[in-house]
């Protein structure tokens, strides 16, 4: 496999250990907030970012964001340490370390942001960094394709979400999450449904809910540490985080309950069947991640204490065991060079530490006491019983958890204690930097289960309070909750799960048969993209003809249409023409301009047309002189002169105007020219008809001498009052000139090259 | 395009137009003129030279690539604008210094950032247009 490291390569690199150390320090930094947040005091930090738009860079540390921050930095540090060894000696390891670190920071920003706009920016940053990470093996076209798929799908959802955020800001008057949530549910607002749909588009694509699920298994093209970090513990949970974060504002309607329950439940059950169907253990884990995301969404549909506690407990448990299992699969893959569930078995003897960590994670996944996973399942059943749609949610949860039990056996038990197949490589124990993460995560799962009071007080209950938007009574996270219905359901789950585990190979054959006959969304995605490319090509060919004349025609056509339609629609009334007051000189200049225009339009020689156009320009300059604006007149005259000169240079090389072309287009061209001319003239006459607002003129006349010590108002405006505009303009002049000169030189060079070839 | 009359006339014309362009630049603050008009006139003078003697000669007379002149002009204009920033005013606020007096009327000499900015405009316009004109001329 391409991403396997050389065991002798140096893994203690600055990029690897440096990023690990910084992430670990961040973890310690966030630990200090635990007692503060647990005592019920969220921390808020604010900077002004775009004050004119009311956008602040504000951070909000409450139970929910703190739990996420700890998971992100804690698991992040372990994954970075793991990756340093896993990818040791990889020629692009430094790049990888930077991608992973940037992702960690984006994710941290996402969960800590208190402002919806900031949240969106961080959200998109995680999309971009994950694109780079999924496509890390960029020599593989499949890896690039999967990275692009994830990017397009999640970024499209993200844009819909941004629209939803803007609507929230516009209707609620604030982008600050802390204020939004304090204001309570907005379910009564007329825009509620639209906002909900838009925000759910973002959350469901990011958290891979059916039917947007297919990108997540494909994203497993990334190296294993990435899968462990992004696609189990952190990024895919961003959607779940968003739903939890906005729970106080957006929940409280039947639409919320129904949508989340149905999407979540379908995803959970579909994904757990698909997990059983896979033989590649990494794919199996990918689908169990989908199952977990579905389950979390399903429980966030509820608003009762038990439902939210179930979601938060399961979120914590899942992050711990899933990251651990991914890392363990990486170690197994590293040691045996295979991830095939049918081949792997009996590894416990050669890899005892890995096996122990796997069992700890597997117990959590299966939900066996005394691990925290068991508590999560008990609370989940209690939550499901309380929910509005419990008739639907309870059987779905039961099915998902039973299937999860079976998958846990396949992933965590069978490779280590099951019958061994023919391994491509003799197994050996993993090195310590890779074992560190799984062992710690497994131990934590166990410790949190044995000491439910501590995990509940510091992590789960503050998070539950944050999601509910009000202090909850707590005390639901218990290892022994008494003999009740959830316990019975747990026992049913174990029995069902065990049966599924025993029969999983037969079931898999059946699932493969069904899958081959179901719709293939992944192939559908490719078809969709192909159709889109065909469409854009056709559309480009239609619009971008490459004929300058057509572009100019379209541009002026739109101009004439907008001006004339506006004039007609606004019903501007009559215009008084005071022709009698024109002086002899003014008549002369007007006739000169008209004569120049007529000659320009009728001649078939480019040079004559150019000179005639020059006459028009000179006429305009004379008008400026008549109305005593010498600066403008001089500029107009000089620009006219230069345009004629420069265009004459170009025209000398061009053939005469094509008489056929002129004939063919002349009527349409004349009509368009008349429309533009009439529209512009009428608009100008109307503008001149308005009483002139002299306030600016008076200011400049008064201030030009007293403030800027200049008597030429035009120049004073240019170089003093509006100097920054002038600076922008001369920058444009320079860029345009350099660009045009470069183009001309390029043509000259390629022309010479062509001649040389002849 | 070879013409003895034009070549001989151009020699006188070029110098005259160029000096006139500087005159227009310097008087711009109080009378018609300024950096933009001056720059256009300066460009015209060199284009006339280029027409008479060819673009290679004109480039030699300029001593510097027109693109460089434009870039220097842009830099000068920027520095003139930045000066106010260091003096504690908003960007691009005109800065005046009185020498030999304490106001515009009493000062013998009044150096200011406005003229410097205008010189920058002059150079950008001159260099920008010449880079285009020379490229056109050389291509034919």
TrEMBL record, chain A:
Subcellular location: Cell membrane; Membrane
Record key words, sorted: Antiport, Cell membrane, Ion transport, Membrane, Transmembrane, Transmembrane helix, Transport
Protein species of origin: Roseinatronobacter domitianus
Signal sequence, renumbered to the chain: none
Residue ranges of domain NADH-Ubiquinone oxidoreductase (complex I) chain 5 N-terminal in the record: 51-96
Span of domain NADH:quinone oxidoreductase/Mrp antiporter transmembrane: 113-395
Segments passing through the bilayer: 14-37, 57-84, 96-113, 119-138, 150-171, 191-216, 256-276, 285-308, 314-332, 353-372, 392-413, 434-460, 480-502, 551-569, 581-602, 607-627, 633-654, 666-688, 730-748
Source species, domain of life: Bacteria
Lipid bilayer topology: Multi-pass membrane protein
Chain's role: NDH-1 shuttles electrons from NADH, via FMN and iron-sulfur (Fe-S) centers, to quinones in the respiratory chain. The immediate electron acceptor for the enzyme in this species is believed to be ubiquinone. Couples the redox reaction to proton translocation (for every two electrons transferred, four hydrogen ions are translocated across the cytoplasmic membrane), and thus conserves the redox energy in a proton gradient.
Keyword field contains Ion transport: yes
Protein name: DUF4040 domain-containing protein
Domain MrpA C-terminal/MbhD: 591-655
Main location: membrane
Record bears the keyword Transmembrane helix: yes
Domain MrpA C-terminal/MbhE: 669-748
From TrEMBL, chain B:
Protein name as catalogued: Na(+)/H(+) antiporter subunit B
InterPro entries: CPA3_antiporter_subunitB, MnhB
Subcellular location(s) per record: Cell membrane
Domain Na+/H+ antiporter MnhB subunit-related protein: 5-130
Family statement drawn from the similarity comment of this UniProt entry: Belongs to the CPA3 antiporters (TC 2.A.63) subunit B family.
The species this protein was found in: Roseinatronobacter domitianus
Listed transmembrane segments: 12-29, 35-52, 64-87, 114-136
Keywords: Cell membrane, Membrane, Transmembrane, Transmembrane helix
Membrane topology value: Multi-pass membrane protein
Membrane in keyword set: yes
Major location category of this protein: membrane
Higher taxonomy: Bacteria, Pseudomonadati, Pseudomonadota, Alphaproteobacteria, Rhodobacterales
């Amino acid at each position: 496999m391409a991403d396997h490291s050389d065991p002798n390569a140096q893994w203690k690199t600055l990029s690897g250990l440096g990023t690990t150390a910084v992430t670990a320090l961040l973890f310690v930094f966030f630990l200090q907030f635990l007692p503060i947040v647990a005592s019920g005091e969220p921390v808020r930090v604010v900077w002004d970012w775009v004050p004119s738009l009311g956008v602040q860079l504000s951070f909000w540390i409450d139970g929910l964001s703190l739990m996420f921050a700890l998971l992100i930095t804690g698991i992040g540090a372990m994954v970075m340490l793991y990756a340093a060894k896993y990818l040791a000696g990889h020629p692009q390891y430094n790049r990888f370390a930077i991608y992973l670190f940037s992702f960690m920071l984006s994710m941290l920003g996402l969960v800590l942001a208190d402002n919806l706009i900031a949240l969106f920016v961080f959200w998109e940053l995680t999309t971009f960094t994950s694109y780079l990470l999924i496509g890390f093996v960029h020599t593989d076209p499949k890896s690039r394709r999967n990275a692009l798929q994830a990017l397009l799908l999640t970024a499209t959802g993200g844009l819909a979400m941004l629209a939803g955020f803007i609507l929230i800001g516009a209707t609620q008057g604030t982008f600050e999450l802390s204020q939004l949530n304090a204001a309570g549910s907005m379910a009564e607002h007329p825009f509620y449904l639209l906002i909900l749909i838009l925000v759910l588009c973002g959350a469901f694509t990011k958290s891979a809910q059916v039917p947007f699920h297919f990108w997540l298994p494909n994203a497993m093209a990334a190296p294993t540490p990435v899968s462990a970090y992004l696609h189990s513990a952190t990024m895919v949970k961003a959607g779940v985080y968003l739903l939890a974060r906005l729970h106080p504002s957006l929940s409280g309607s039947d639409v919320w309950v129904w949508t989340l329950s149905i999407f979540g439940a379908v995803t959970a059950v579909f994904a757990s069947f698909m997990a059983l169907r896979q033989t590649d253990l990494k794919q199996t884990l990918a689908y169990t991640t989908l199952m977990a995301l579905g389950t979390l969404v399903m429980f966030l549909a509820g608003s009762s204490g038990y439902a939210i506690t179930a979601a938060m407990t399961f979120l914590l448990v899942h992050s711990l065991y899933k990251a651990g299992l991914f890392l363990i699969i990486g170690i197994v893959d590293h040691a045996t060079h295979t991830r095939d569930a049918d081949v792997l078995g009996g590894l416990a003897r050669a890899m005892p530490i890995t096996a122990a960590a796997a069992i700890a994670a597997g117990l959590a996944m299966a939900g066996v006491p005394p691990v925290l996973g068991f508590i999560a399942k008990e609370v989940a059943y209690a939550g499901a019983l309380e929910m509005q749609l419990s008739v639907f949610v309870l059987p779905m949860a039961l099915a998902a958890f039973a299937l999860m039990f079976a998958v846990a056996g396949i992933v965590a038990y069978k490779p280590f204690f099951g019958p061994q197949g023919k391994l491509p490589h003799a197994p050996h124990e993993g090195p310590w930097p890779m074992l560190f993460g799984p062992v710690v995560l497994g131990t934590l799962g166990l410790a949190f289960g044995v000491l439910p009071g501590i995990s509940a007080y510091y992590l789960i209950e503050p998070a539950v309070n944050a999601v509910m938007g009000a202090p909850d009574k707590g005390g639901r996270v218990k290892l022994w909750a008494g003999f009740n219905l959830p316990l019975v359901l747990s026992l049913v789950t174990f029995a069902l799960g065990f049966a599924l585990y025993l029969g999983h190979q037969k079931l898999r054959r059946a699932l493969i048969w069904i899958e081959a006959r179901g719709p293939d969304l992944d192939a559908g995605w490719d078809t969709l993209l192909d159709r889109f490319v065909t469409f854009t090509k056709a559309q480009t060919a239609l619009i971008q003809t490459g004929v300058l004349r057509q572009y100019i025609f379209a541009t002026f056509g739109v101009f004439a249409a907008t001006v004339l339609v506006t004039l007609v629609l606004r019903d501007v009334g009559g215009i008084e023409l005071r022709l009698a007051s024109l002086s002899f000189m003014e008549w002369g200049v007007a006739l000169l301009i008209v004569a120049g225009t007529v000659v320009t339009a009728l001649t078939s020689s480019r040079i004559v047309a150019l000179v005639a156009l020059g006459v028009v320009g000179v006429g305009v300059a004379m008008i400026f002189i008549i109305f005593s604006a010498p600066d403008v007149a001089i500029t107009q005259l000089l620009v006219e002169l230069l345009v004629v000169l420069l265009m004459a240079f170009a025209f000398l090389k061009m053939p005469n105007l094509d008489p056929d072309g002129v004939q063919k287009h002349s009527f349409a061209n004349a009509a368009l020219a008349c429309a533009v001319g009439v529209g512009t003239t009428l608009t100008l006459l109307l503008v001149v008809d308005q009483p002139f607002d002299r306030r600016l003129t008076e200011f400049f006349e008064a201030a030009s001498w007293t403030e800027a010590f200049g008597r030429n108002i035009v120049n004073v405006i240019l170089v003093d009052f509006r100097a920054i505009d002038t600076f922008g303009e001369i920058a444009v002049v320079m860029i345009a000139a350099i660009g045009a000169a470069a183009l001309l030189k390029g043509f000259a060079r390629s022309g010479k090259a062509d001649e040389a070839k002849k | 395009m070879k013409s003895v009359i034009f070549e001989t006339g151009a020699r006188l014309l070029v110098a005259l137009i160029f000096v006139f362009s500087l005159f227009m630049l310097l008087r711009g603050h109080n009378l018609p003129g300024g950096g933009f008009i001056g720059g256009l006139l300066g460009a015209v003078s060199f284009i006339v030279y280029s027409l008479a003697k060819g673009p290679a000669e004109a480039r030699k007379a300029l001593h510097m690539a027109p693109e460089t002149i434009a870039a220097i002009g842009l830099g000068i204009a920027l520095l003139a604008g930045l000066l106010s920033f260091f003096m504690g005013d908003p960007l691009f606020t005109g800065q005046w210094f009185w020498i030999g007096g304490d106001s515009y009327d009493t000062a013998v000499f009044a150096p200011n950032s406005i003229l410097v900015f205008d010189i920058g405009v002059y150079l950008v316009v001159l260099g920008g247009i010449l880079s285009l004109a020379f490229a056109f001329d050389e291509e034919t």
